[in-house]
Design brief:
With about 200 residues, this protein is α+β, with helices and mostly antiparallel strands. It contains six helices and five strands. Strand 2 and strand 3 form a beta hairpin. Helix 2 crosses helix 3.
Length: about 200
Amino acid sequence: MYQKSSLLYLLIASLLIFNSSSFAQSKLTKPERKALKKEIVAYKKNPELYKAKKDKNEKKISDLETELESIRTQLSAEWNKVDSLKNAISENEQTISEFEKSAVDCGKIPHEGTVYSVQIGNFNKLDLRSTFSTGKGLRTENYTGGNAYLIGNFNTPEEASKFSNDVKKLGITNAFVTQYIDGVRILTFDALKDN
């Protein structure tokens, strides 16, 4: 019996505290006040009902707090992904910048260093210079009275020979490797003999 009355006083005290804080925030209308008084009377008659409702609300609050913590964790993980993607973008931009700095225009012979090209033909009656002038890695040059068509600027004769063999597989059987030193074609170079 003593427990019921102390629980009842606790209920009334909490309702009064709740009611006074609510009252400070907004005034109750007459129907709201009447409904609240009716609810208090019901809780006085049946404190177990109050406890059940209180427990239910506490569980709901606990569940919502757990859900909120889960959402915070997920949000943190998503922000970590965003940071990771930003870092990847930055690294990719740096890599692109490095590639742009080191890019070689395959349509022109570098004026410094040694490069190797694959000549795919030398034709007197075929002129495709306007086609290759768009910088697609192909170039033309006047060679022994004809138009020589060349592809690429390779750093080693082995790379150029491999590409020349690939071009031959396409049916251009007279393709061969040429050498340029400081922008000048070396006519005596023979990739098969010099390797």
